[in-house]
């Protein structure tokens, strides 16, 4: 019995020991799980803090980059035009201001330097256009926003080449401003040019003949209904030495480009009768005239497209909400000239226009943009001024006025005027 009791006690001890070992194992495993969860939570917390820190740093950096006014951007564009390099701070501010903010004063420069004078397209204008395009592409690294302008520049360049391909020397005059007509004239005599009876006179005569080739001028008069010589005198210029065999009536095809020529009669009296240019090969002239008309149409369309794009004149903006951008007929700036800056709601005004205004008029010009949308003014002088205008209808209180009704032209123009006030 004693042996059995000892065996039972031994078994009990073994079972207790096994039970204790199992408990210790569970505690270790639980401890490991707790440790893993703690590490993961620590990592997540650290990651969140890091993200927040990075975001705060980015926001802080963005907030530190100052955006430029239109006037400041204009000044920097002029520096780029002169071939100067921008320092890193100015370049960073320019990029922070955005490509669209850059585009407005850049377009003003293009207009003032190339199109404002209204002169015909030329190689010099094309070179100036290209130089200004390089200002844009050199800073922004591309021309995506101005590709349509460049396309129209190419059209203008091609028109210039087409013009130069037409041989004008065979006419002896500029055919661009004339129209071919046909009429009967009474030719009386050849008009002789007088030169000094000196070596210099002979040289002048020789140079004129060399430049104009074989040509002659003839005194002519209108023909009356009865077939007689009239009293209206003119001079017919011909690219031939002797186109008429004798005095008499001839039907002549000619071009009148508005020229006159001084004529001194035998008694010493001088007059300036109209000068007409005789055309013998009318079929060639008409072909050239047709080519010129086609070229002029292309030039006009390309030029108008560029000017419309960079000034906004005549442009319909499909991006604007029609309900918000619709203006009453009496408030339409295109039909009423009673504005400080005409059309400031439908085009980009230029810096030059603002410079020409007094300080008082700049203030009125800025506020008339708001006045077009019915804003009521607290200032007595503004209130009196706009209430005197037939187009003004004050319906919106200052605190209720929402600037979202302003279109892209109005916003840009307000910024420009404000920067120069």
Description:
This protein is an alpha+beta fold. Helix content is 54%, strand content 11%. It contains 13 helices and seven strands. The chain has helices spanning 2-64, 70-81, 88-97, 99-115, 123-140, 147-165, 199-212, 282-311, 322-325, 351-355, 359-371, 380-387, 408-420; strands at 180-191, 216-223, 229-238, 248-255, 263-264, 270-271, 275-278. Helix 5 (123-140) packs antiparallel against helix 6 (147-165), helix 6 runs antiparallel to helix 8 (282-311) and helix 11 (359-371) packs antiparallel against helix 13. The radius of gyration is 42 Å and the shape is elongated. The termini are far apart. Residues 28-36, 56-62 and 314-336 have low confidence and may be disordered.
Mean pLDDT: 79
Strand order of the largest sheet: 1-2-3-7-4
Structural class: alpha+beta
Main sheet summary: 5 strands, mixed, barrel
Helix fraction bin? 40-55%
Q: Kindly, what is the distance between the CA atoms of the first and last residues, rounded to a whole number of angstroms?
A: 118 Å
Low-confidence runs (pLDDT<50, min 5 residues)? 28-36, 56-62, 314-336
Helix-strand topology string: HHHHHHEHEEEEEEHHHHHH
Determine Rg (CA atoms, Å). Answer: 42 Å
Give the percentage of residues in beta strands. 5-15%
Q: How many extended strands?
A: 7
**Tally of separate helices:** 13
Sum up the overall morphology in one term. elongated
């Amino acid at each position: 019995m004693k042996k059995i009791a000892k065996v039972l006690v031994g078994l009990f001890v073994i079972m207790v020991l096994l039970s204790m070992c199992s408990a210790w194992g569970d505690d270790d495993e639980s401890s490991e799980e707790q440790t893993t969860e703690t590490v993961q939570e620590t990592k997540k917390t650290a990651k969140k803090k890091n993200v927040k820190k990075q975001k705060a740093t980015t926001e802080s950096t963005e907030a530190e980059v100052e955006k430029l006014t239109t006037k400041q951007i204009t000044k920097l564009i002029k520096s780029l035009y002169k071939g100067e390099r921008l320092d890193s701070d100015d370049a960073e501010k320019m990029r922070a201001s955005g490509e669209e903010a850059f585009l407005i004063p850049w377009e003003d420069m293009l207009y003032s330097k190339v199109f404002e004078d209204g002169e015909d397209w030329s190689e010099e204008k094309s070179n100036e256009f290209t130089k200004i395009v390089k200002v844009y592409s050199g800073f922004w690294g591309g021309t995506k926003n101005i590709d349509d302008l460049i396309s129209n520049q190419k059209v203008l360049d091609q028109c210039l080449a087409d013009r130069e391909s037409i041989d004008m020397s065979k006419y002896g005059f500029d055919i661009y401003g004339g129209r071919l007509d046909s009429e009967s004239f009474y030719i009386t005599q050849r008009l002789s040019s007088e030169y000094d009876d000196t070596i210099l006179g002979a040289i002048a005569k020789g140079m004129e003949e060399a430049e104009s080739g074989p040509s002659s001028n003839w005194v002519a008069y209108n023909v009356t209904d009865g077939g007689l010589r009239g009293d209206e005198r003119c001079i017919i210029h011909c690219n031939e030495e002797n186109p008429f065999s004798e005095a008499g009536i001839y039907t002549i095809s000619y071009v009148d480009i508005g020229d006159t020529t001084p004529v001194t009669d035998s008694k010493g009296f001088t007059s300036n009768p109209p000068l007409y240019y005789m055309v013998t090969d009318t079929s060639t002239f008409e072909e050239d005239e047709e080519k010129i008309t086609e070229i002029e149409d292309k030039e006009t369309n390309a030029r108008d497209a560029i000017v419309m794009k960079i000034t906004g004149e005549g442009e319909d903006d499909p991006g604007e909400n029609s309900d918000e951008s619709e203006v009453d007929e009496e408030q339409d700036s295109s039909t009423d000239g009673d504005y400080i800056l005409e059309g400031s709601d439908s085009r980009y005004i230029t810096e030059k226009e603002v410079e020409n205004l007094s300080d008082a008029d700049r203030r009125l010009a800025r506020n008339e943009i708001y006045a077009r949308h019915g804003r009521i003014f607290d200032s007595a002088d503004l209130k009196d001024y706009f209430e005197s205008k037939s187009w003004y209808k004050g319906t919106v209180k200052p605190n209720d006025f929402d600037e979202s009704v302003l279109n892209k032209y109005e916003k840009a123009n307000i910024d420009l005027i404000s920067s120069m006030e």
